[in-house]
Structure formats: structure tokens, C-alpha cells
Automatic annotation (TrEMBL):
Domain of life per record: Bacteria
Protein known as: Putative glutamate--cysteine ligase 2
Function: ATP-dependent carboxylate-amine ligase which exhibits weak glutamate--cysteine ligase activity.
Record's keyword annotation contains ATP-binding: yes
Annotated signal peptide: none
Keyword ATP-binding carried by entry: yes
Coiled coil spans: none
Catalytic reaction(s) noted: L-cysteine + L-glutamate + ATP = gamma-L-glutamyl-L-cysteine + ADP + phosphate + H(+)
């Protein structure tokens, strides 16, 4: 398994600043990432020699960057790698007078600045205002599968649970300086892309690949990297990639999410091998379930994956844990993931922390500063007290 996270680069006033290219240049010189020029050549299929240690890379906007863990086999390793690479990203940003924040949208009003590069330029030309306005940060979890047939069998069985992952990762209540009333407004913005959203179920891997080919044949998206299904087969790795989560403030919550995703994938693979039926839920209902999850996070009701009816978020999470418990137990993750879910229910999501800080201070810049502290694990006593409520 592995995790990719997108982070904002911010200044002392909490404003996202277009210093990611400078930050990545520092990281590249330290052997810790690709600069914008290297990455653009890589995206165009060049044989540029990118170091194997590259884990920090550019993203669509110059106010954000992406980190990726290496392949991990335990949740402890995932947590250690995330802490390491968040720390290295922050150190590189600090060298150019900035910090990094695991925020899925910017609390303060910001004018997004495009990252230079041929592919990014084509994205902005093709998608106009959508590409211009999008400054969002997600978290993608990869889990290995045996082959595409197993991968599609997994996708068919986990799709009904993906809105629950949106709810527990919710970390984007503010947009353009205002409270949106959503827990994950990033999800709303993200679904402006034409290929984003739920997909499936599929009869087999052949049908999945035919759908991807049909999407590409419309010439609406640029390439297979823009097949933004909520979960998909990775184009580059033998993995299922789950893409519905906001970037999460705390590393421990990313570890919980990763454990749940691996548990879902393993449970689905076992069910497929046993000949279990694929859960039935139309994509239109899944889209509604995703909307409800983004609206209230863990504070309200979610659409239950088994019934298609509203149920308290705590009950849905309890059923999710029951669903994946055998897989968690076999991996030795049952207690860690169970405690992580309990912690999220007790203290709330990143969206809850952001709103708590804003209620106490009335200052969106303070929200960003608290997020920087939570991102790097260097929370002050006051921020830690707020986070624990």
C-alpha cells in the first residue's frame, strides 16, 4: 500500500503562496523530489532520469505540492513515512519563507496560480474556469491487487463504502474566505471535472477497460490520468487507487483511513474469491451518498451502504468496522484502526477542528496556522487542546 497527499504552501498570514516551484527546487537539490521542469518532462514521456528517492512533486497549482510514500507493508510504516515526508516538505518550504498545511481547501480567499508546464497548460486551456478556480488537496490510497480482474472485483465491492471515507476525511469547510456549510467542500469542487464521480459495477476487467477507452475516445479528458473515478485501477501500478478523501490534517487519521481502505480491498478480494454477490447501488444513488457525506461529514447522517437509507454516521462507521474486521485482525490492525475511528468520532474531523479554531478566534489565518501545526505534528498546547475536544 502507499499514500499520496497534496499539501498547500502557505505564508505566515495563512495565504497560499505560489512558492511550490521554489520549494520543489530546494527538495530536488536535496535529493527529495522533482522540480517543475523534471516533472513536466516526465509527464510528457521523456526519459529524464528522475531519482528513485523522488517523493515531492508538483501539482496543478503553484500553491500546492504532492508527497508520496514508498510502498509500505504495515500501517506503522505508513505513519512513519508520512511524518518523514511531511517534515521534509515543510523544511523545503521553510527554506523559501513558507510552510505546508494539510488543508483540502484554503480557508482564506486566494487567487490560484497555475503551475508552469505543457500538460498543466493544456488542462487550463481545455477546462477554462474549472481549472482556473480549482485549488484543492486530496489524499489517494493505493492497495495492491493480484491483477486487473481482482482489481475490478474489488472496485465493484468497495464502491458503496467510498462516501463513508469522504465523511471521515472531511477537511474543507471554508472556500474563498467563507464557511460553506459543507464538511468537505473539496468534494463539491472536485466533481466539476467531467470524469469525476462513481463508476461501475463492471462485469469484468474487459468492461472496465472498454469504459476507460470510451471516456478517452470522447476527447473530453486529456489522458488516462484524468479518469477521475472515485476508485480506479492505477495506470502505473498494480493497485486499486481510492481517491475520495480530502487530505487529512493529522497523520494518525491518514493511517486510520489507509487501514480501512486496505481492509476494504482485502475483504472485497476474499468475497470475490468466495463467489459473493456484488452489492447493488446505482451510480445515481452513490452520487447522492457522496453529496450527503460531503455536506455533514461525521456530524450527521450518512446513506448506509447496505440499505441505501439514512443512518447516524457512528452507526455506519461501526458497520464498516464490522465489515472489515476479519481483514483488520489478520493484518494486526484491528485495535489501531478501531481506536482511530473512535478518536475521529470523539474529537471530530479536520473540518471540525477548523471551525472550532475559527469560532474561538474569528480569524481564518489562525485556522491555517493551527493546520500547519497539526500537519507537522508540532501543535502548541492550545492547538492540541482544541484538537482534543
Amino acid at each position: 500500500m502507499g499514500v499520496e497527499e497534496e499539501l498547500l504552501v502557505v505564508d505566515a498570514d495563512g495565504i497560499p503562496v505560489a512558492r511550490a516551484p521554489e520549494t520543489l527546487l530546494i527538495a530536488a537539490r536535496r535529493g527529495e523530489g522533482e522540480d517543475v521542469h523534471q516533472h513536466d518532462l516526465e509527464e510528457q514521456g521523456s526519459d529524464v532520469d528522475v531519482p528513485e528517492t523522488a517523493h515531492l512533486v508538483p501539482e496543478l497549482k503553484a500553491q500546492q505540492l504532492e508527497l508520496g510514500t514508498p510502498v509500505c507493508t504495515t500501517l506503522a510504516e505508513v505513519g512513519a513515512q508520512l511524518r518523514h515526508w511531511r517534515s521534509r516538505a515543510d523544511a523545503a518550504a521553510s527554506a523559501v519563507g513558507s510552510r505546508v498545511a494539510a488543508l483540502a481547501t484554503s480557508p482564506v480567499d486566494v487567487a490560484p496560480v497555475p503551475t508552469e508546464g505543457e500538460r498543466y497548460g493544456r488542462l487550463h486551456e481545455a477546462f477554462g474556469r474549472t481549472a482556473e478556480e480549482v485549488l484543492t488537496c486530496g489524499c489517494h490510497v493505493h492497495v495492491s491487487v493480484t491483477d486487473d480482474e481482482e482489481g475490478v472485483a474489488v472496485l465493484n465491492r468497495i464502491r458503496v463504502w467510498l462516501p463513508v471515507l469522504t465523511a471521515l476525511s472531511a477537511n474543507s469547510p471554508f472556500w474563498q474566505g467563507l464557511d460553506t456549510s459543507y464538511a468537505s467542500f473539496r468534494s463539491q469542487v472536485w466533481h466539476r471535472w467531467p470524469s469525476a464521480g462513481p463508476a461501475g459495477p463492471f462485469r469484468d476487467a474487459g468492461e472496465y477497460h472498454r469504459l476507460v477507452a470510451a471516456v478517452l475516445a470522447t476527447r473530453t479528458v486529456l489522458d488516462d490520468g484524468m479518469v477521475y473515478f472515485d476508485a480506479r485501477l492505477s495506470a502505473n501500478w498494480p493497485t486499486v487507487e481510492v481517491r475520495t478523501a480530502d487530505v487529512l490534517l493529522r497523520v494518525e487519521d491518514v493511517v486510520t483511513l489507509t487501514g480501512l481502505v486496505r481492509g476494504l480491498v482485502e475483504t472485497a478480494a476474499r468475497d470475490a474469491r468466495a463467489g459473493g454477490a456484488v452489492p447493488e447501488m446505482p451510480a445515481e444513488v452513490l452520487r447522492l451518498a457522496g453529496w450527503r457525506a460531503s455536506r455533514s461529514g461525521l456530524a450527521g447522517e450518512l446513506v448506509h451502504p447496505r440499505t441505501g437509507r439514512p443512518a447516524p454516521a457512528a452507526d455506519v462507521l461501526a458497520d464498516l468496522l464490522d465489515h472489515v474486521r476479519p481483514a483488520l485482525a489478520e493484518a494486526g490492525d484491528e485495535r489501531l484502526v478501531g481506536d482511530g475511528v473512535a478518536a475521529l468520532l470523539a474529537r471530530g474531523t479536520g473540518a471540525d477542528l477548523q471551525r472550532q479554531v475559527h469560532r474561538e478566534t474569528g480569524d481564518l489565518a489562525a485556522v491555517v496556522r493551527a493546520a500547519v501545526e497539526a500537519t507537522t505534528g508540532e501543535a502548541t498546547p492550545r492547538a492540541a487542546a482544541v484538537a482534543s475536544r
